[in-house]
Amino acid sequence: MSVVTEAPDRRRSRPAPGAPARSVPEPLWRRRDRRWALVFLAPQMLGLLVFLVGPLGFAIVLSFMKWDGLGDATWVGLDNFRAQLTDPYFGRAVWNTVKIGLITVPGGLVVALLLALALHGVRGRTAYRVIYFLPVVTSSVAVSVIWQMILGSGTDGILNGTVHDLFGITLPNWLEDPTWVVPAIAAVTVWSSLGLNVVIFLAGLATIPTSLLEAAKIDGAGPWQTLRSVILPMLSPTVFFTVVVSVISSFQAFDLIYVLVNPDHNEGAQTIVYKVYQQGFREFHFGLSSAAALILLLLTLIVTAVQFKAQKRFVHYES
Amino acid sequence: MNHRKQILLHAALALGGLLMLFPFIWMMLASFKGVHQMINEPLAWLPGPWRPQNYPDVLGEVALGRAYWNSMYIAAVTVAATLFTGAMAAYAFARIPFRGSGPLFGLLLATQMVPAQVTIVPLYIMLARFQLIDSHLALILPAVANPFAVFLLRQFIRAVPVELEDAARIDGAGRWTIFWRIILPNIRPGLWTLGIIVFLASWNSYFFPLVFLNTPDLFTVPLLLDSFSSQRGGVDYGLTAALSAMTVVPMLIAFLVGQRKILNSMASSGLGGR
User: Fold this and answer.
1) What radius of gyration, in Å, describes the C-alpha atoms of chain B?
2) Sign of CA dihedral A30, A34, A35, A37
3) In chain B, is it the N or the C terminus that has fewer CB atoms within a 10 Å radius of its CB?
4) Are A105 and A307 in contact (CB under 8 A)?
5) Which of these, B159, B228, B242, B244, lies nearest to B193 by C-alpha position?
6) 8 A C-beta contact, residue B215 and residue B205
7) Cα separation of A45 and A48, whole Å?
8) Confidence of residue B246 (pLDDT cuts 50, 70, 90)
9) Is A223 on the interface with B (CB under 8 A)?
10) How many CA atoms lie within 13 A of A203 on its CB side?
């Protein structure tokens, strides 16, 4: 560690070639301080280099190679990306990933916002807050195992069977039917992450000054108008933040889908992340798997960039 | 708000609450059902004869205590190491001027965008080289490198008055003493927030243990539950429900005890750039 921390330090204190020599020598404490900065930074920065930045670079290199981890690696250029983008299964996985995001993000956030508005200022809201938050602290594996038992096995399943007995309606076979599996995943996802968004929105609502709300009332604004012209603009930074985070996490969702549905047997539940896992750790196509992962990264970056562009129009920051 | 509206609102909220609780209630009921009842009356909501025997039965089949210990100490080590090294880096970014501080911090924020799935194949290859696959270190080490931790704690450190630090410096304290005696005690809420987030993430983690662990003795709680339910879930869900109940209920109790702290932590982390 000492080698790493001292080497750049010495280089920095040397004047750049062509730069005028310093007339005043640097104070000793400042030089010592720089050394301290390196000491404080070293553990995290080394960790990030070894476990994040290095592997990212490695993933980029791997995506241009054909390698099964045992034999020789061969350079194949863009073949892996070409293979993914022309593979209908991968296309399906991309579409499923986007579809899950398109249902869970707006659906989850609207429900959470309505709940937060209802809870804000209601007596006894702590109890509701706690109840709605329970699924968030529960592991996604446990959540999936429970829901699997509730949603599973057609009309023998507890939910479908009960609905059938009570109303005579036959509900779809949620976890096996390729067209209904995405809505089922989305519903469980919304259920399990609702509490977190409610708590974040409640915290955002608490920062709106009551004087603003009173002023709106005095000006004769109804509840709808207050929501549109006071609450939503004031809450927009929080909403923006949760939208970005929700989109990113919906693209990376794995645990819940994998345990709830087992995408091995249901194409309708195969997402990009599932492809990364399947091609990497089932088929040992490290190159293909890395290419899939990089396509996911690219998709994330594009969507986030679009959101930051949109932020300028919709998000209101107090100056 | 008038009285009638209040009642309607509470009715709607309670109904929603019941919907949130329903899977947990159903899990508890199912954990007392026997195979016999499931075959004869699959749609019964209440256990026919209550069968508490499911609990000892499933405990005889899987090493739940072992998995609990594994998950607990992995989470504890991850939290301690993340808080300590994260606070150190955050202090350097917040208070020690050095060349390249801004760009380096920008780079750190950018790495947050990289999904874990992008690095998992290279990480696997790397850890295999170090002979760390199928060991708990493979779960702990990568988790400690946490740009979010540095970002969050830096926010908290920036809120600590500089005057405190200056006063300590006049008294002859060095950087390390200031960090240890002034900064850390003053960012306790931040450490709690981060500690809870990191603990939950480690405790509930599934993807990394799934890829990195093979030996059942090393399994964490979620991995154990998953492997049991995928083998036996369809056959005897009374046992699976009993096992899920035993993995879920202790966490729910811990949450109920510390709910104020946990909810506030989540709320403040959610506001991120505040």
Assistant:
1) 24
2) positive
3) N
4) no
5) B159
6) no
7) 5
8) very high
9) no
10) 22
* CA–CA separation, B10 and A318 (whole Å): 34
Q: Which two tokens stand for residue B179?
A: 């960090």
* Per-residue pLDDT tens over the stretch B56-73: 999 999 999 999 999 999
Helix A2-13 and helix A28-48: axis angle, to 10°?
A: 130
For residue A75, list its beta bridge partners.
A65
Strand partners, B39: none
Q: What's the predicted TM-score (pTM) here?
A: 0.89
- Closest-CA distance, A196 to chain B, in angstroms, reads 7
Quick one: pLDDT at residue B73? Answer: 96
Q: How far is CA A5 from the centre of its chain?
A: 34
What is the SS3 assignment for B245? helix
Paired tokens of A11:
């280089």
ipTM for this prediction: 0.90
Mean per-residue pLDDT over chain A, rounded? 86
pLDDT band with cut points at 50, 70 and 90 for residue A155? low
In this structure, are residues B208 and B74 in contact, taking their beta carbons and an 8 Å threshold?
no
Nearest to A237 by CA among A212, A200, A210, A211: A200
Angle, CA B121 vertex, CA A287 and CA B74 arms, to 5°: 175
Contact between B121 and A262 using a beta-carbon 8 Å cutoff: no
Strand partners, A65: A75
pLDDT at B31: 92
Tokens of A165: 């007995």
Alpha-helix runs per DSSP H in B112-187:
116-129, 137-144, 147-158, 162-170, 175-177, 184-186
Q: Are the C-beta atoms of A72 and A247 separated by less than 8 Å?
A: no
Asked if A41 and B88 come within 8 Å (Cβ–Cβ), the reply is yes
Q: What single letter denotes the amino acid at residue B193?
A: T
Nearest CA among A252, A249, A279 for reference residue A84: A279
Best to test chain A binding among B38, B117, B198, B223 (most A CBs inside 10 Å): B117
Query: Using CB atoms and an 8 Å cut-off, which of residues 185-204 of chain A contact chain B?
Result: 191, 194-196, 199-200, 202-204
Instruction: Give SS3 for B103.
Output: helix
pLDDT in tens, A23-75: 566 666 667 788 899 999 999 999 999 999 999 999 999 999 999 888 888 89
Please report the residues numbered 54 through 113 in chain B whose beta carbons come closer than 8 angstroms to any beta carbon of chain A.
Answer: 85-86, 88-89, 91-93, 96-99, 101, 104, 108, 111, 113
Please say whether the beta carbons of A270 and A92 come within 8 A: yes
Burial class (CB in 10 A: 0-12, 13-18, 19+), B214: exposed
